[in-house]
Amino acid sequence: MIDDAKPASGKPIFLWDKELRGFGIKVEAGGTKSFVLQYRNSEQRKRRLVLGRYGVMTLEEARSEARIKLGEVARGTDPADEKRAIRDGATVGQVCDWYLCEAEAGRILGRKRTPIKASTLAMDRSRIESHVRPLLGRRKVAALRLPDIEAMQNDIAVGKTARPRGEGRGGTTQGGKGVAARSISMLHSIFAHARRAGLIDSNPAVGVRKFPDQKKTRRLSREEIRKLGHAMRDVADFEHPVGLAIIRLLALTGLRLNEAQSVERNWLFDEGYIAFGDTKTGAQIRLIGSPALELLKAQPPLGDEPFIFPSDGGQSHFVAASGVLGRICQRLGWADVTPHTLRHTFGSIAGEFGYSELTIAAMLGHSAGSVTGRYVHLDQAVESAVERVSTEIATLLDGE
Length: 400
What we know:
Elements: E1 13-16, E2 23-27, E3 33-40, E4 46-53, H1 59-74, H2 79-89, H3 92-104, H4 118-136, H5 146-157, E5 163-164, E6 172-173, H6 177-196, H7 222-234, H8 241-253, H9 257-261, E7 268-269, E8 273-276, E9 284-287, H10 290-297, H11 321-332, H12 339-352, H13 357-364, H14 371-376, H15 380-397
Helix pairs in contact: 3-4, 3-6, 4-6, 5-6, 7-11, 8-10, 8-11, 8-12, 8-15, 12-13, 13-15
Protein backbone atom coordinates (compact mmCIF):
# COMPACT_ATOMS: atom_id res chain seq x y z
CA MET A 1 0.00 0.00 0.00
CA ILE A 2 2.84 2.37 0.93
CA ASP A 3 4.82 1.56 -2.21
CA ASP A 4 1.82 2.23 -4.44
CA ALA A 5 0.65 5.38 -2.66
CA LYS A 6 0.84 8.63 -4.65
CA PRO A 7 -0.12 12.20 -3.72
CA ALA A 8 -3.58 13.29 -4.87
CA SER A 9 -3.50 16.15 -7.37
CA GLY A 10 -0.19 17.39 -6.09
CA LYS A 11 -1.37 17.47 -2.46
CA PRO A 12 -0.06 15.35 0.41
CA ILE A 13 -2.11 12.40 1.63
CA PHE A 14 -2.10 10.32 4.81
CA LEU A 15 -2.43 6.55 5.19
CA TRP A 16 -3.40 5.43 8.69
CA ASP A 17 -2.57 2.11 10.31
CA LYS A 18 -5.46 -0.12 11.38
CA GLU A 19 -3.34 -1.84 14.01
CA LEU A 20 -1.95 1.15 15.92
CA ARG A 21 -4.16 4.19 16.38
CA GLY A 22 -2.52 7.46 15.29
CA PHE A 23 0.32 5.79 13.41
CA GLY A 24 0.50 6.44 9.68
CA ILE A 25 2.50 7.64 6.74
CA LYS A 26 2.45 11.01 4.99
CA VAL A 27 2.98 11.11 1.24
CA GLU A 28 4.25 14.57 0.29
CA ALA A 29 3.27 16.34 -2.93
CA GLY A 30 6.71 15.53 -4.34
CA GLY A 31 6.37 11.82 -3.52
CA THR A 32 8.48 11.72 -0.33
CA LYS A 33 6.99 9.35 2.26
CA SER A 34 7.50 9.74 6.01
CA PHE A 35 6.14 7.84 9.01
CA VAL A 36 4.13 10.02 11.37
CA LEU A 37 2.43 9.67 14.74
CA GLN A 38 -0.67 11.73 15.55
CA TYR A 39 -1.83 12.02 19.16
CA ARG A 40 -3.18 14.39 21.83
CA ASN A 41 -0.85 15.49 24.62
CA SER A 42 -1.76 15.92 28.29
CA GLU A 43 -3.33 19.28 27.47
CA GLN A 44 -5.47 17.57 24.78
CA ARG A 45 -3.69 19.48 22.07
CA LYS A 46 -3.46 17.60 18.76
CA ARG A 47 0.17 16.92 17.82
CA ARG A 48 1.83 15.23 14.86
CA LEU A 49 5.38 13.84 15.08
CA VAL A 50 7.58 12.73 12.16
CA LEU A 51 9.23 9.41 13.07
CA GLY A 52 11.43 8.92 10.04
CA ARG A 53 11.57 8.57 6.30
CA TYR A 54 10.20 5.48 4.56
CA GLY A 55 13.06 3.56 2.97
CA VAL A 56 15.51 4.60 5.66
CA MET A 57 13.20 3.30 8.38
CA THR A 58 11.19 0.11 7.86
CA LEU A 59 7.51 -0.23 8.64
CA GLU A 60 8.26 -2.51 11.60
CA GLU A 61 10.85 -0.11 13.02
CA ALA A 62 8.49 2.84 12.65
CA ARG A 63 5.56 1.00 14.30
CA SER A 64 7.82 0.00 17.19
CA GLU A 65 9.04 3.59 17.58
CA ALA A 66 5.43 4.81 17.51
CA ARG A 67 4.53 2.48 20.41
CA ILE A 68 7.44 3.88 22.44
CA LYS A 69 6.32 7.45 21.78
CA LEU A 70 2.71 6.65 22.70
CA GLY A 71 4.03 5.21 25.98
CA GLU A 72 5.74 8.53 26.64
CA VAL A 73 2.47 10.34 25.92
CA ALA A 74 0.67 8.07 28.40
CA ARG A 75 3.25 9.08 31.05
CA GLY A 76 2.48 12.75 30.45
CA THR A 77 5.41 13.80 28.28
CA ASP A 78 5.14 15.26 24.78
CA PRO A 79 7.63 13.73 22.28
CA ALA A 80 7.01 16.56 19.82
CA ASP A 81 8.12 19.16 22.39
CA GLU A 82 11.22 17.12 23.18
CA LYS A 83 12.14 16.83 19.52
CA ARG A 84 11.57 20.55 19.01
CA ALA A 85 13.81 21.32 21.99
CA ILE A 86 16.55 19.11 20.50
CA ARG A 87 16.05 20.72 17.10
CA ASP A 88 16.28 24.24 18.49
CA GLY A 89 19.22 23.52 20.78
CA ALA A 90 21.19 20.88 18.88
CA THR A 91 24.87 21.61 18.54
CA VAL A 92 26.98 20.72 15.51
CA GLY A 93 28.72 18.07 17.61
CA GLN A 94 25.41 16.47 18.60
CA VAL A 95 24.21 16.36 15.00
CA CYS A 96 27.50 14.80 13.94
CA ASP A 97 27.17 12.19 16.70
CA TRP A 98 23.65 11.40 15.49
CA TYR A 99 24.90 11.03 11.93
CA LEU A 100 27.71 8.65 12.90
CA CYS A 101 25.34 6.52 14.99
CA GLU A 102 22.65 6.34 12.30
CA ALA A 103 25.15 5.72 9.50
CA GLU A 104 26.86 2.91 11.42
CA ALA A 105 23.45 1.27 11.85
CA GLY A 106 22.83 1.49 8.10
CA ARG A 107 19.87 3.85 8.45
CA ILE A 108 21.33 6.66 6.32
CA LEU A 109 21.53 6.21 2.58
CA GLY A 110 24.25 7.69 0.39
CA ARG A 111 24.20 8.97 -3.19
CA LYS A 112 23.41 5.58 -4.70
CA ARG A 113 20.58 4.94 -2.22
CA THR A 114 22.72 2.43 -0.36
CA PRO A 115 23.99 2.60 3.25
CA ILE A 116 27.13 4.67 3.83
CA LYS A 117 30.22 2.49 3.32
CA ALA A 118 32.47 1.77 6.28
CA SER A 119 35.47 3.34 4.51
CA THR A 120 33.51 6.55 3.83
CA LEU A 121 32.23 6.62 7.40
CA ALA A 122 35.77 6.21 8.75
CA MET A 123 36.89 9.20 6.69
CA ASP A 124 33.87 11.23 7.83
CA ARG A 125 34.63 10.39 11.46
CA SER A 126 38.23 11.52 10.99
CA ARG A 127 37.17 14.86 9.48
CA ILE A 128 34.60 15.40 12.22
CA GLU A 129 37.06 14.75 15.03
CA SER A 130 40.01 16.54 13.38
CA HIS A 131 38.31 19.62 11.96
CA VAL A 132 34.58 20.06 12.54
CA ARG A 133 34.34 19.35 16.26
CA PRO A 134 37.29 21.55 17.33
CA LEU A 135 36.02 24.51 15.30
CA LEU A 136 32.20 24.29 15.44
CA GLY A 137 31.33 21.37 17.70
CA ARG A 138 29.81 23.48 20.49
CA ARG A 139 27.96 25.89 18.22
CA LYS A 140 24.18 25.50 17.90
CA VAL A 141 23.11 24.58 14.39
CA ALA A 142 20.14 26.96 14.50
CA ALA A 143 22.50 29.89 15.12
CA LEU A 144 24.97 29.07 12.34
CA ARG A 145 25.18 31.31 9.30
CA LEU A 146 27.06 31.02 6.00
CA PRO A 147 29.96 33.19 7.22
CA ASP A 148 30.49 30.72 10.10
CA ILE A 149 30.75 27.77 7.72
CA GLU A 150 33.07 29.61 5.37
CA ALA A 151 35.21 30.75 8.30
CA MET A 152 35.61 27.09 9.30
CA GLN A 153 36.73 26.32 5.75
CA ASN A 154 39.35 29.08 5.91
CA ASP A 155 40.57 27.93 9.33
CA ILE A 156 41.07 24.36 8.11
CA ALA A 157 42.84 25.59 4.98
CA VAL A 158 45.41 27.65 6.94
CA GLY A 159 46.11 24.84 9.41
CA LYS A 160 44.29 25.88 12.60
CA THR A 161 43.31 22.25 13.15
CA ALA A 162 46.79 20.90 12.33
CA ARG A 163 47.93 18.02 14.50
CA PRO A 164 50.77 15.47 14.51
CA ARG A 165 50.57 12.62 12.00
CA GLY A 166 50.86 8.99 12.95
CA GLU A 167 54.14 7.16 12.74
CA GLY A 168 55.74 6.67 9.36
CA ARG A 169 55.25 10.00 7.60
CA GLY A 170 56.48 12.55 10.15
CA GLY A 171 55.46 16.19 10.32
CA THR A 172 51.95 17.40 10.96
CA THR A 173 48.60 17.37 9.23
CA GLN A 174 48.51 20.86 7.73
CA GLY A 175 44.96 20.99 6.44
CA GLY A 176 44.90 22.75 3.10
CA LYS A 177 42.20 23.83 0.68
CA GLY A 178 41.40 20.30 -0.50
CA VAL A 179 40.81 19.00 3.02
CA ALA A 180 38.81 22.14 3.86
CA ALA A 181 36.54 21.78 0.81
CA ARG A 182 35.89 18.08 1.47
CA SER A 183 35.10 18.81 5.13
CA ILE A 184 32.55 21.42 4.05
CA SER A 185 30.97 18.99 1.58
CA MET A 186 30.68 16.36 4.32
CA LEU A 187 29.14 18.83 6.80
CA HIS A 188 26.64 19.98 4.16
CA SER A 189 25.63 16.34 3.65
CA ILE A 190 25.30 15.69 7.40
CA PHE A 191 23.05 18.73 7.82
CA ALA A 192 20.95 17.58 4.84
CA HIS A 193 20.43 14.15 6.46
CA ALA A 194 19.55 15.78 9.79
CA ARG A 195 17.05 18.12 8.14
CA ARG A 196 15.45 15.19 6.30
CA ALA A 197 15.07 13.40 9.65
CA GLY A 198 13.47 16.47 11.23
CA LEU A 199 16.31 17.16 13.69
CA ILE A 200 17.03 20.64 12.31
CA ASP A 201 14.83 23.11 10.47
CA SER A 202 17.29 24.20 7.80
CA ASN A 203 20.72 23.43 6.41
CA PRO A 204 23.07 26.31 7.29
CA ALA A 205 25.65 25.08 4.75
CA VAL A 206 23.39 25.61 1.74
CA GLY A 207 24.99 28.15 -0.60
CA VAL A 208 28.49 27.94 0.88
CA ARG A 209 31.26 28.69 -1.60
CA LYS A 210 33.82 25.89 -1.41
CA PHE A 211 37.39 26.01 -2.53
CA PRO A 212 37.79 24.34 -5.94
CA ASP A 213 38.68 20.66 -5.79
CA GLN A 214 42.42 20.43 -6.39
CA LYS A 215 42.92 16.87 -7.58
CA LYS A 216 46.39 15.46 -7.12
CA THR A 217 48.16 14.68 -10.36
CA ARG A 218 51.49 13.47 -8.96
CA ARG A 219 52.81 10.39 -10.72
CA LEU A 220 56.18 8.69 -10.88
CA SER A 221 58.42 8.96 -13.91
CA ARG A 222 60.07 5.84 -15.26
CA GLU A 223 63.31 6.75 -13.47
CA GLU A 224 61.39 7.27 -10.21
CA ILE A 225 59.77 3.84 -10.59
CA ARG A 226 63.29 2.38 -10.86
CA LYS A 227 64.33 4.30 -7.74
CA LEU A 228 61.27 3.01 -5.87
CA GLY A 229 62.14 -0.58 -6.80
CA HIS A 230 65.74 -0.08 -5.72
CA ALA A 231 64.67 1.46 -2.38
CA MET A 232 62.26 -1.43 -1.74
CA ARG A 233 65.14 -3.88 -2.17
CA ASP A 234 67.32 -1.80 0.18
CA VAL A 235 64.77 -1.96 3.02
CA ALA A 236 63.74 -5.58 2.50
CA ASP A 237 65.73 -6.76 5.53
CA PHE A 238 63.90 -4.57 8.06
CA GLU A 239 60.60 -3.43 6.51
CA HIS A 240 57.46 -5.57 6.70
CA PRO A 241 57.42 -8.00 3.74
CA VAL A 242 53.63 -7.85 3.47
CA GLY A 243 53.73 -4.07 3.25
CA LEU A 244 56.37 -4.24 0.54
CA ALA A 245 54.33 -6.80 -1.40
CA ILE A 246 51.25 -4.55 -1.26
CA ILE A 247 53.24 -1.56 -2.53
CA ARG A 248 54.48 -3.63 -5.45
CA LEU A 249 50.91 -4.80 -6.14
CA LEU A 250 49.69 -1.19 -6.17
CA ALA A 251 52.30 -0.30 -8.76
CA LEU A 252 51.56 -3.34 -10.92
CA THR A 253 47.76 -2.98 -10.92
CA GLY A 254 46.65 0.58 -10.16
CA LEU A 255 44.40 -0.76 -7.40
CA ARG A 256 43.24 1.53 -4.64
CA LEU A 257 44.99 0.97 -1.31
CA ASN A 258 42.00 -0.55 0.49
CA GLU A 259 41.31 -2.81 -2.50
CA ALA A 260 44.87 -4.14 -2.56
CA GLN A 261 45.13 -4.67 1.20
CA SER A 262 41.81 -6.50 1.51
CA VAL A 263 42.05 -8.97 -1.41
CA GLU A 264 40.82 -12.44 -0.43
CA ARG A 265 42.10 -15.70 -1.91
CA ASN A 266 38.73 -16.79 -3.24
CA TRP A 267 38.49 -13.52 -5.19
CA LEU A 268 41.60 -14.37 -7.24
CA PHE A 269 41.25 -16.35 -10.47
CA ASP A 270 44.00 -17.96 -12.54
CA GLU A 271 42.55 -16.37 -15.68
CA GLY A 272 44.03 -13.10 -14.46
CA TYR A 273 41.38 -11.18 -12.61
CA ILE A 274 40.12 -10.31 -9.14
CA ALA A 275 36.37 -10.47 -8.46
CA PHE A 276 35.69 -7.76 -5.88
CA GLY A 277 32.39 -8.03 -4.03
CA ASP A 278 32.50 -4.30 -3.37
CA THR A 279 34.68 -1.32 -4.27
CA LYS A 280 34.28 2.46 -4.29
CA THR A 281 32.16 2.04 -7.44
CA GLY A 282 30.42 -1.22 -6.48
CA ALA A 283 31.11 -4.88 -7.29
CA GLN A 284 33.75 -5.28 -9.99
CA ILE A 285 35.86 -7.75 -11.92
CA ARG A 286 39.33 -6.19 -12.19
CA LEU A 287 41.80 -7.56 -14.71
CA ILE A 288 45.43 -7.89 -13.59
CA GLY A 289 48.64 -8.71 -15.47
CA SER A 290 50.73 -11.85 -15.02
CA PRO A 291 53.34 -10.10 -12.79
CA ALA A 292 50.59 -9.13 -10.33
CA LEU A 293 49.00 -12.59 -10.51
CA GLU A 294 52.34 -14.24 -9.72
CA LEU A 295 52.88 -11.86 -6.80
CA LEU A 296 49.49 -12.64 -5.29
CA LYS A 297 49.81 -16.40 -5.73
CA ALA A 298 53.26 -16.33 -4.12
CA GLN A 299 51.97 -14.94 -0.82
CA PRO A 300 52.07 -17.67 1.86
CA PRO A 301 48.72 -18.43 3.56
CA LEU A 302 48.26 -17.84 7.28
CA GLY A 303 46.19 -20.73 8.59
CA ASP A 304 42.60 -20.46 7.45
CA GLU A 305 42.75 -16.67 6.97
CA PRO A 306 40.86 -15.63 3.81
CA PHE A 307 43.08 -12.62 3.15
CA ILE A 308 46.06 -12.79 0.83
CA PHE A 309 47.69 -10.08 2.95
CA PRO A 310 46.66 -10.96 6.53
CA SER A 311 47.59 -8.91 9.58
CA ASP A 312 50.27 -10.29 11.88
CA GLY A 313 47.68 -11.39 14.41
CA GLY A 314 45.26 -12.77 11.84
CA GLN A 315 41.48 -12.14 11.87
CA SER A 316 41.90 -9.11 9.58
CA HIS A 317 43.89 -7.87 6.61
CA PHE A 318 47.12 -5.89 6.70
CA VAL A 319 46.54 -2.13 7.04
CA ALA A 320 50.02 -0.59 7.37
CA ALA A 321 51.19 -0.48 3.73
CA SER A 322 50.81 3.30 3.66
CA GLY A 323 53.24 3.63 6.55
CA VAL A 324 55.76 1.37 4.81
CA LEU A 325 55.52 3.48 1.65
CA GLY A 326 55.88 6.64 3.74
CA ARG A 327 59.17 5.49 5.24
CA ILE A 328 60.50 4.49 1.82
CA CYS A 329 59.53 7.89 0.42
CA GLN A 330 61.34 9.61 3.29
CA ARG A 331 64.51 7.79 2.28
CA LEU A 332 64.02 8.98 -1.28
CA GLY A 333 63.18 12.56 -0.27
CA TRP A 334 59.65 12.37 -1.73
CA ALA A 335 57.16 14.33 0.36
CA ASP A 336 54.28 14.22 -2.11
CA VAL A 337 54.00 10.51 -2.94
CA THR A 338 51.09 8.46 -1.55
CA PRO A 339 49.60 5.05 -2.40
CA HIS A 340 47.26 6.84 -4.79
CA THR A 341 50.30 8.19 -6.66
CA LEU A 342 51.01 4.62 -7.78
CA ARG A 343 47.48 4.42 -9.18
CA HIS A 344 48.08 7.63 -11.16
CA THR A 345 51.39 6.19 -12.33
CA PHE A 346 49.75 3.03 -13.67
CA GLY A 347 47.30 5.16 -15.66
CA SER A 348 50.12 7.43 -16.84
CA ILE A 349 52.15 4.52 -18.24
CA ALA A 350 49.02 3.31 -20.01
CA GLY A 351 48.60 6.78 -21.49
CA GLU A 352 52.19 6.77 -22.72
CA PHE A 353 51.41 3.57 -24.62
CA GLY A 354 48.56 5.39 -26.37
CA TYR A 355 45.56 3.61 -24.85
CA SER A 356 42.24 5.47 -24.94
CA GLU A 357 40.65 7.11 -21.91
CA LEU A 358 37.87 4.50 -21.95
CA THR A 359 40.39 1.66 -21.87
CA ILE A 360 42.41 3.28 -19.08
CA ALA A 361 39.22 3.88 -17.10
CA ALA A 362 38.37 0.18 -17.43
CA MET A 363 41.90 -0.80 -16.37
CA LEU A 364 41.59 1.33 -13.22
CA GLY A 365 38.04 0.25 -12.39
CA HIS A 366 36.45 3.66 -12.75
CA SER A 367 32.66 3.76 -12.69
CA ALA A 368 31.26 3.02 -16.14
CA GLY A 369 28.93 5.81 -17.16
CA SER A 370 27.60 4.22 -20.33
CA VAL A 371 26.48 0.89 -21.72
CA THR A 372 29.70 0.69 -23.76
CA GLY A 373 31.74 1.41 -20.64
CA ARG A 374 30.11 -1.40 -18.68
CA TYR A 375 31.07 -3.98 -21.30
CA VAL A 376 34.63 -2.77 -21.95
CA HIS A 377 35.82 -3.93 -18.52
CA LEU A 378 36.24 -7.48 -19.86
CA ASP A 379 37.25 -6.59 -23.38
CA GLN A 380 40.31 -8.39 -24.77
CA ALA A 381 41.86 -5.02 -25.57
CA VAL A 382 41.73 -4.13 -21.87
CA GLU A 383 43.25 -7.48 -20.96
CA SER A 384 46.12 -6.88 -23.39
CA ALA A 385 46.64 -3.34 -22.10
CA VAL A 386 46.74 -4.44 -18.48
CA GLU A 387 49.30 -7.12 -19.26
CA ARG A 388 51.53 -4.70 -21.17
CA VAL A 389 51.46 -1.96 -18.53
CA SER A 390 51.94 -4.38 -15.63
CA THR A 391 54.90 -6.03 -17.34
CA GLU A 392 56.49 -2.65 -18.13
CA ILE A 393 56.21 -1.47 -14.51
CA ALA A 394 57.55 -4.79 -13.21
CA THR A 395 60.57 -4.38 -15.48
CA LEU A 396 61.18 -0.83 -14.20
CA LEU A 397 60.79 -1.86 -10.53
CA ASP A 398 63.32 -4.63 -11.05
CA GLY A 399 65.79 -2.11 -12.42
CA GLU A 400 65.91 -3.40 -15.96
